Amino acid sequence: MNGIPIEHILFVSTALFFIGMYGLFTRRNMITMLMAIELILNSVNINFVVFNKYLYPDKLDGIFFTIFIITIAAAEAAVAIAIIINLYRSHQSIDVEDAAEMKY
Amino acid sequence: MSYASYIPLIPLLPLAGFLLLSFFGKKQFKSLSGIIGTGFLFVAAVLSVYAAYQYFFVDGKVDGIYRSVTVVKYSWLQFSEGLSIDMGVVLDPISAMMLVVVTVVSLMVHIFSIGYMKGEERYSTYFAYLGLFTFSMLGLVVSTNIFQMYMFWELVGVSSYLLISFYFQKPSAVAASKKAFIVTRFADLGFLIGILILGVQGGTLDFTELLQLLTDTQSPQYLAITAASFMGISLLSWALVLVFIGGAGKSAMLPLHIWLPDAMEGPTPVSALIHAATMVVAGVYLVARLFPLFSLDEAVLNLVTWVGATSAIFAAIIACTQTDIKRVLAYSTMSQIGYMMFALGVSGQGGEAGLGYTASMFHLFTHAFFKSLLFLGAGAVIHLVHGNDMKDMGGLRKYMPVTHITFLIACLAIAGVPPFAGFFSKEEILLAAFESNKAIYVIALMTSAITAFYMFRLYFSIFWNKETALHHYHGEGPLSMKLPLVILSAGALLAGLIPFSHYVTSDGKLLETHLHLGFSVAPVLLAIGGIALAFILYKKQNKMPDKIAASLGGLYKSAYHKFYIDEAYLFITKKIIFNLIAKPAAWIDKNIVDGTMNGIAAVTGKTSEIIKGVQSGKVQNYAIYFFGGIVTLAVVFLYLWN
Amino acid sequence: MTITQIIFYLLSAIILGAAILSVTTRKIFRSAIWLLLSLVGIAGLYFWLAVEFIAAVQIVVYVGGIVVLIIFSIFLTQQSGLEMKKAPPKRTIASLLAVASGFALTYNLIYHYGFKTGDGKFDMELDRIGTQMLNTGKDGFALPFEVVSILLLAAMIGCIVIATKTKPETT
């Protein structure tokens, strides 16, 4: 469709996924980790839409998945922010290295 | 045999007494414990006497031979087709006799203890232990299976340990009970190995079957056991020697006798029960039970004879020098058991040759009466004087007439003066010895002379000699302490008149024995000579004993110190075993075994210190490990796994 | 090279570039803005793929809701102008390695799979979405719809509970 083979679009989504993972591993600030998670979720969304459009054009399942994922991502982001705020109140910092109490 | 069904009750009654008193005695029964324990024993004694009466006079004889009747047998541990440990009750001449002896003497001790132990804080515990001991001893004598006998053997050892250390606040009592238990346990190792050899070679542990198989010189078991040999001695001899070692330990034969004098730390009625009439004869009983086997091996019988004879004369010499009255009686017991042992040793199997067997069992029977009487009398004396040493006693005949007369009867019996019981049984032993081995006969004669001497030395030192003043004299003692003395003295008087050889013989058939008056002249004269010597030296206080002791010098000193055998044992254990074996073993245990364990623990600890850094608490590290692991696994499974 | 292809590559460049900048920049507020740009790029991709509804939902929920929420939380928890600390270099290298190998593996799989495009024309009518969403029969998404609404309720309540300040004890 549109002259772009499916693999190219999947390249975009895969790269976005792994950029998000890199951000998850590397960032010290919890909010930036949350932002990286959002990137990951978005890459999944692109995947669903593309598969639906290219491989199963007569069905709409991918669209629905995408809608639900966006909804749930919103809920999850809200809960995550609430947790971060709670953690900020007890540790006075949102650095993940400062919340390393569950260790040996 | 209808009476047979209640015979298993006889050991179980004292057991019931033990359980009842140990659980409820302290709180509920308290001073009733004595009556309760005695009550159980009384019923058991009545049952035993009735069973013996039925066996010997009514039912036991089949075709003129007293048969062994297995009353009950219950297979407990089955190892293989023929080999199993059974629990059973057997009734044959020696077990019936022992049932009567054990229950009657135990009953007398119980009655005596009601008065002797009155006011004792652990009164109910004492009677519980007595019940346990009686149960164990009764179980031992009615065992059908040699392993069952071994189990009751050990139970008897435990009960005696508990009873010797009854006054456990005294360190000497604790040491004595430990010594008794350890020495007998050490001897029991030999017994166990002997049992194993017999069981493996004979293919069975049951007494009747074992004796049947191994005395039949044509049976495969007999041929196997005599063919196999270890260090040049046949396996049969090894088994018998080892079993005899076990018996020698329990019966305080030389050199395993060291525990018996120390065991006098227990209460005196306990000594009367255990160290006079019942436990110490268990070794003799064992040899008698296995006698058909022993009679096959001349060399082992020789060993039995010489061990018995040397123990007899050795103990007699030491008894002449001791001043503690209980120790004198302990050595006297050792000496008399030596008599029983060598009587078995010189005996043959069957018919006239089996005279030694009958004589030994007869002496066991009569000895039970007069020895327990002697101990109970000594108990009455100790109860009055509150001391054991004969140097502090004297002239007590005025204060305790009943004890005096019964003690005199017992001393006359043990010295072998007719018509008291000891005369008849000793005469038969001497006859058996004379017919087999003249050397043993001479030793036996000398021992009986020395026996008469030291027993009357004891008698005169307590009841005559010097006059002692007693501070508080409340009378001789309660009825419960006098009654057993009287009953037992009746036994000491009359037991000799029983024609024992009609009932107990090596093969069950009747044996006619006669009184050889000419033969009895020598021992009776020697006995009277010994009594006269003691009369001269001890009836009135004088310097002669000390002068004689001084003139005998070194011999007297070493006899007084029991020939330094205890010191020799102590030397061996301390210098040799402890230093050469125990210390290195302890070093190995502490450093090598423990060190290995500690080393393993330390290594584990160090390793965990090193790898605990993985658990850093940093979420992102976890995420990287997680993801890296997934990628690696995916690569492995997709591309490298074929 | 048709114009659609050029637009696609441009959009991809925006998406990926903004994403990379978002995860590497040291200033937190800028990271949020790059994220915003990336999400807008993704919305543009949806427009290019002719799924306009999803694009609209993306802009309304993600950009207008979530990024705004993130920016609020940045303001609530720290000075937005400060520089953030860097990650230790060991971790940077390790994660680069992990990510690179993961990407290589995944794209290798995708590239060699051989997707077969389906036949038919993709027709995304909005009323079709609506009826299928609330359809209780075959191919209906009524159940997930209800479940998601319960999830949203739970998330709302949860957020309120977690973020509530505990009242100090009255003595």
Output the radius of gyration of chain C. Answer: 22 Å
Low-confidence stretches of chain C: none
Q: N-to-C terminal Cα separation of chain C, in Å?
A: 76 Å
Distance between the termini of chain B: 84 Å
How many helices of chain C does DSSP assign? 6
Shape of chain C: extended
- Listing every helix as H and every strand as E from the N terminus to the C terminus, the arrangement of chain C reads HHHHHH
CATH homologous superfamily (4th level) name of the domain at 3-102 in chain C: NADH-ubiquinone/plastoquinone oxidoreductase chain 6, subunit NuoJ
How many helical elements of chain B?
A: 25
Give a quick account of the main beta sheet of chain B: strands, pairing sense, barrel closure: 2 strands, antiparallel
Approximate strand percentage of chain B: under 5%
Low-confidence stretches of chain B: none
Largest sheet of chain C: none
- Shape label of chain B: globular
Q: What fraction of the residues of chain C are assigned to beta strands by DSSP?
A: under 5%
Tell me, what is the CATH class of the domain at 3-102 in chain C? Mainly Alpha
Question: Structural class, from secondary structure content of chain B?
Answer: mainly alpha
Radius of gyration of chain B: 30 Å
* Total beta strand runs of chain C: 0
Instruction: Give me the CATH architecture of the domain at 3-102 in chain C, please.
Output: Up-down Bundle
Task: Describe the protein's architecture and organization.
Chain A is an all-alpha fold. Chain A is built from three helices and no strands. In chain A, α1 (6-26) packs antiparallel against α2 (30-55) and α2 (30-55) runs antiparallel to α3 (61-91). The longest helix of chain A is centred in the last third of the chain and has 31 residues, at 61-91. By secondary structure, chain B is mainly alpha-helical. Chain B has helices at 9-29, 33-59, 93-116, 123-141, 146-164, 171-202, 207-215, 220-227, 235-250, 259-262, 268-277, 282-289, 291-294, 298-319, 325-345, 355-385, 401-415, 421-436, 438-463, 479-494, 517-538, 544-552, 554-560, 565-611, 619-640; strands at 61-62, 65-66, 69-78, 84-91, 229-230, 233-234. A two-stranded antiparallel ribbon of chain B has the order 1-2. In chain B, strands 3-4 form a two-stranded antiparallel ribbon. In chain B, α14 (298-319) runs parallel beside α19, α16 (355-385) runs antiparallel to α17 and α17 packs antiparallel against α19. The termini of chain C are far apart. Chain C is mainly alpha-helical and 171 residues long. Chain C has helices spanning 3-24, 28-48, 52-77, 89-111, 126-133, 142-163. Chains in contact: A-B, A-C, B-C. Chains A and C meet through α1, α2 and α3 of A and α1, α2, α3, α4 and α5 of C.
